[in-house]
Amino acid sequence: MKQLLALSAGLALPDPLAPPTTASGNADLWSAAGSVLAWRSRVAPLRHVDTTEPAPLSFAQERLWSLEQSEPGAPYYHIPLTWEIQGELDVPALTKSFDFLLQRHQALRTSFPSGQGGTFQQVSDHSANLAVEDLSHLGADEARTESWNRAARFAQLPMDIESGPLLRAVLYRRSPTDHWLVAIFHQMIFDGASMRVFNRELSGRRAGSG
Q: Are 184 and 169 in contact (CB under 8 A)?
């Protein structure tokens, strides 16, 4: 996690069965966030599956779940993505965008509890709970360094795959016109294809905010 931001947006995600690595994406998403409604109209609706019955794990999830049991909560399979946001930022609109993506994609709200019948997928109804940490009282260089240090610690906080959530995000406000968004995903719910979809749809917020 020491090189949290060293990688570019185009880097493929690590194999969940390979030795621990880090991944990060950077994008200048938008200079000013606006209404989320216009963006929603551009995004095709998804067909949700029935979540009233437990769903089995995929083969890849079963293998990753087994690896997780050897050291529960360890950050080896955490995937950090980051976005630099320059300009005035509408934080409530950003929060709405994150919440919309959570509601749109059931995988982002999935946890993996265990019962008598084994481990299964469970979709919950929760929001992104985007945290905001204001560092604007610091100088520009100090705020940037402090945000890096905090993000490194944030990325290593344990996730409970049984109860979730397996996605968390924080926004570092380094100045009124300089924000850094950091999101951490667990590989049980996120992969290379997920990264491309998430980046595309969150970037679509920019087109819908003007």
A: yes
